[in-house]
Every structure is written in C-alpha cells, then in structure tokens.
Specification:
The chain has 305 residues and is an alpha/beta fold. 27% of the residues lie in helices and 19% in strands. It has two domains: 117 residues, NAD(P)-binding Rossmann-like Domain (Rossmann fold), CATH 3.40.50.720; 174 residues, Rossmann fold, CATH 3.40.50.720.
Length: 305
C-alpha cells in the first residue's frame, strides 16, 4: 500500500526519502492551499519556521504530524483531522539545554567567558546546584526528563503540575501550592503548555514571591512569562530562557544586555539528535498507516478528544 506524505521543505523530504517502503512524496510548504484534496500523512515544519497553518483547512488527511511536542498552535486549524505530536523527539535535547542554562547561571559561566575574553585569571565562588531547592512547573515528558537530569546534582527537587496528586516519588504540587513554594525555591523551571490558562502565569505577582538571587528559567512558551515583568525583576533575580514574547526580541531590548540574563534563541530541541529521532518517528507513523494501526502520539482525533 502506497502512503502519500506531504513534506514542507527539503529536510523533511530527505527524511521521507530515507523510508524503506512505498511512499508518494508531495511537496507542500503550507504557504498556499494543498496541491491535492487528500494526503495520508501531512508533516508540519518546525515551529521556528512560522508556518501558515490556516492552509490545513484545504486538505483532508489520515494524520497531521506536528514536529513539536507542543500542539496548541495547531488545534485552531486542524478541523476534524487527527493530530499527533513529536513525543520521543525533543525531550532529551530540551532537557539537556535546560540543564546547560541552569548550570551556566548557577556557576556564573558568563563571568568566566568575560574574564577569559579580557585575559584575566578570575577565581570566584558561585552558588552551584548542590543542595538547592528546584521547582519544575509542568511535570510532563520534558519536565520528567529535566528532573531526571537534575537529581544527580543532589538538588532538592519539587514538582508541580496542573493539579495536585501523589505518585511513587511523593507529592506533585498543584497551582494552589505555588504561593507557598515560590519563596522557598532557589530555581524555578517552567515547562508548561502554552495555552490560555498559562498565559502570563509568570507575572509581577509570581516573580515578587521569589527570593532575591533565585533563578527563573522559561523553557515552555514565550507567552507563559510576562516579558516586562522579567525586565522589572532582572536586577534582583537571575533569568534564563529559551523562549520569550516576542520572538525575536527587538533590537536594543534590555534583556539582551542585562548581566543577570542568559538566553538561547528558541533552540531547545535543536541538537544532532533531532533529525534522527524525528525521521524515526515519521517512519513509524508511515508503518502504522500502512498496516492500519493506530499511529503514535495522537493528541487529537476525529471525535474531538
């Protein structure tokens, strides 16, 4: 059985051409209506490509495959078509970058880089990670991967999700617990979905609850943190992020040059691991469609669930 697969750019075409089976590749960059009425598997480009998802209305499909774990940006345009996200692709790379940003801020790597650039031998003490209280807000796939990487650094790990519960590792706190937790934390890491309930959850009130010198890290969506509030609190907090609102930051924005701020330009999943893992997921989805099996990672189906 030949499966039709639409590809948004040459990188995705190469991933599908590598598939050992019968596929018909359709080039569709989503910048105009679909060239055919039906496609078995529609592959969406990376979020940072800023695709025009309104063109999804022009096609019927057995499955739309997002290239990100977050899928909220696709839902308004999906209609009744099944949607899958990219679970298994980005968790490791994103948690890896999260740890890099946390370590860089907690050991003051920017100061090391600046000292080296000036040709100075600069020995100093930095807070570090050992014995610090760390709160991960958003205990999903990436949140758990971040937690797994933090534990060997001998931190005191706290976890928070959309509702309070207990599991084998203890309490997963809910939103109602944050006002009590935040003043105790040395590090707060955000990895919640970008949706209406989380929009600007990190505002002036949230940041005011954090103690002086604490680190706030946004690895979720830019919309989760109020950028003006981050600027207002940057003098007394440490700030790190991979996402921000707006993206990119305008030229001359104070977060570019603030000494307490370190950021990466929305590249959490962008490591050498991404394409092999994304290619493997695409191939498994083609296998499933060919065999009439349920695809992986379906987060929205025709019944609207």
């Amino acid at each position: 059985m030949t499966i039709t697969v639409s590809v948004p750019n040459p990188d995705f075409r190469a991933a599908v051409e590598n598939y050992d089976g019968e596929v018909q590749i359709i080039d569709w960059d989503l910048k105009s209506p679909a060239p055919v009425e039906f496609i078995d598997l529609v592959l969406l480009p990376l979020v940072t490509d800023n695709p025009d998802l309104t063109t999804l209305h022009s096609v019927d499909a057995r499955l739309v495959q997002a290239s990100s774990i977050g899928f909220e940006h696709v839902l308004p345009h999906i209609g009744s078509k099944p949607l899958a996200n990219a679970t298994t692709v980005h968790e490791t790379s994103t948690s890896e970058l999260t740890l890099a940003l946390v370590l860089a801020q907690m050991r003051d790597v920017p100061r090391m880089v600046a000292s080296q650039g000036r040709g100075e031998w600069d020995t100093f003490t930095a807070p570090g990670l050992a014995d610090k209280k760390v709160l991960v807000i958003g205990w999903g796939g990436i949140g758990k991967a971040i937690g797994d990487r933090l534990r060997p650094f001998e931190v005191e790990l706290y976890r928070s999700a959309s509702y309070r519960r207990e599991d084998a590792d203890g309490i997963v706190y809910g939103p109602e617990d944050l006002p009590e937790l935040l003043p105790q934390m040395d590090i707060v890491i955000l990895i919640v979905p970008g949706q209406e309930s989380t929009a600007k959850m990190v505002d002036d009130k949230f940041l005011s609850l954090m103690k002086d010198g604490a680190l706030i890290v946004n690895m979720a969506r830019g919309s989760v943190a109020d950028t003006d509030a981050l600027v207002a609190h940057a003098d007394r907090l440490k700030v790190a992020f991979d996402v921000v609102d707006p993206e990119p930051l305008p030229a001359g924005h104070p977060l570019y040059s603030h000494p307490n701020v370190l950021f990466s330009a929305h590249m959490g999943g962008y490591s050498d691991a991404m394409w092999p893992r994304l290619r493997a997921l695409i191939h498994r989805q083609i296998d499933a469609l060919s065999a009439g099996r349920e695809p992986e990672n379906v987060v929205f189906n025709q019944s609207g669930n």
